[in-house]
Specification:
The chain has two helices and no strands. It has 84 residues and is an all-alpha fold. The protein has one domain. The radius of gyration is 30 Å and the shape is rod-shaped. The protein starts with 7 loop residues before the first helix and ends with a helix. The relative contact order is 0.05. The chain crosses the membrane at residues 12-33, 39-65. This is Membrane protein. Keywords: Membrane, Transmembrane, Transmembrane helix.
């Protein structure tokens, strides 16, 4: 059985050192990983922007064709694939 009891002041300094070390480690990892995450976020937001523009363009084309020519683009594309 271990009877060693550290003094409260030494335990406090070790805890403070661990917190400072954690802050420095997080700062260093943020510096290193910022370049990686900036590229990941750039590519992700670019792909999301392309997908949203394609979807919005499809809906605008659908509504314009529906209003002008009474042609249902949604039904034309998806009805033959999902109907039996």
């Amino acid at each position: 059985m271990n009877s060693y009891r550290p003094a409260p002041s030494s335990n406090l300094w070790i805890t403070a050192f661990k917190i400072v070390l954690l802050i420095f480690a997080l700062y260093f990892s943020a510096i290193v990983l910022s370049h990686v995450f900036s590229w990941v976020f750039t590519i992700t937001f670019f792909l999301i922007r392309i997908a949203v523009s394609i979807i919005v363009g499809f809906f605008l084309l659908h509504f314009l064709l529906k209003l002008l020519f009474r042609f249902d683009l949604w039904n034309f594309i998806f009805a033959s694939r999902f109907s039996r």
